[in-house]
Amino acid sequence: MVQVRPVTTPRDRQRFLQLPWTIYADDPAWVPPLLAEEKKLLNPRRNPFFRHAKVQLFLAEADGRALGRVAAVVDERSNRFHNENVGLFGFFESVNDTAVSNALLTAAAKWVREMGAEKLRGPIDLSTNERVGLLMEGHGEPPVFLMTYQPPYYAELLEAFGLEQEEDLVSFQVPVQRQGGKIARVAAICARKGYTLRTIRMKDFDKELQIFREIFNEAWENNWGFVPMDDAEFDFMAKGLKQIVVPEFALIAEREGEAAGVLLALPDLNEILRPLNGRLLPFGWLKLMRTFKNIRGHRVIIMGVRKAHRNRGIDAMLVNQIAINSADLGYKTCDFGWVLERNDEMRNLGEALAGAPYRRYRIFCKEL
Fold first, then answer.
1. Cβ neighbours of 105 (radius 10 Å)
2. pTM across the whole model
């Protein structure tokens, strides 16, 4: 008989974190996450997200074996920002058994309802600033860095619980090449208007981060699911990524000394993570740095333009320059995503660069 219980002990937490190794044992496309990073993400003493959110982890078990897991989340800041009462579920993993998945999702729904939520939404790993969505199209190939990956049967499990489609997100795989054509022409026009581009100054990394945070919060505030990040949260995210930031992939557009737009792409660390099997110690970082130069793909994770500078070609200028820099560094592909499918402007840009999306992710919801 399946039993679901809250995670309350260090041993429970360790089983929660290690469960994916059981679920994906026979899936060659799965990339093990770094356990140290997962622990940090779920640690209330280290992750400032917990200052404005409540989180409860659950494990599903039968005959002493862990069969599934889920995190139930109520983010008070997000609910205030969007004027809604929503609970989230994330870190969802389950064997292919609706008895297990239904028990897990029932526990998550009950907990968020007790916290005042009127709707259950997910899968979202804590917030939309982390990993988001259930992979619906694009199975069989490894995910890119910081994107989700799940077996195809997960959609059936969620639908069996009564969860329905709320939003779809798409990603585009862009071959790295100097753009030319319309994008290069628009970038040139933007330059004639007085806009310039520069790379991030790594010696002033913390100060430069504030530019990215401010523009990200301004550019994304009207997007579905956006959750503003304060200094502490942005610093928490950025410090975990500082060692893999490539300056040529961190671009700032300026005009008369004012920052107008930003783009940040990260090397696809997943290309070299699999052999580490989730562990950096004792020699993981050394292996990682030695193979870092072998990475040939990257992913755009932040791109935004201040409201006062929109519709002037800054997005084309950023895309054109990242293409030039990527080609110069020997990169071959760029994952452009995720993009909200109904965000026509960004989807049209993705389609202009790559054609049809190559991966689709879904956010589900259910009224409680």
1. 30
2. 0.94
